[in-house]
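Hi there,

I know you've been waiting on this one. I reran it after we fixed the sequence typo, so this is the corrected version. Both the input and the resulting structure follow.
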Amino acid sequence: MASANRPWDYEVFLSFRGEDTRHNFTDHIYVTMDSLGIRTFRDDEELSRGEEIAPSLFTAIEKSRCALVILSERYAHSKWCLEELAKIMERRAEMGLIVYPVFYHVDPSDVRHQRDSYGEALAKHERRGFVERTQRWRAALTEVADLSGWHQQNG
């Protein structure tokens, strides 16, 4: 729980693809953490195509002790999820943010090597002109997939 002597407002920042996990897996995690008194940031907004991430999301990452990154089938299809992930991994390198990946119905190796839906999504982002960003996103995906985490295959 956050307190006056801690530099963070949230114990956990949840990064997830809303359409994949918001109303099931992520909700269960959020409700459980909340019931345990763990202050958790979960973005309740669905961004429309063309909208940019609110600066408040980046601020929430900066004010979080750790990040739980729920990597699902369509996570990489969202440039906003990838921007969040890049910021999370940047904070990990610069400030020691604790990052714990959850591979939700995806193989960690496919995330690490950007195969299957991850490879398709990144190729699509590159075709749309996000070449420099995509390089940063690829590096963040490789890095997060190299971390110790949890592989959720069923449920």
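Quick highlight: The mean pLDDT is 91.

Best,
R. S.
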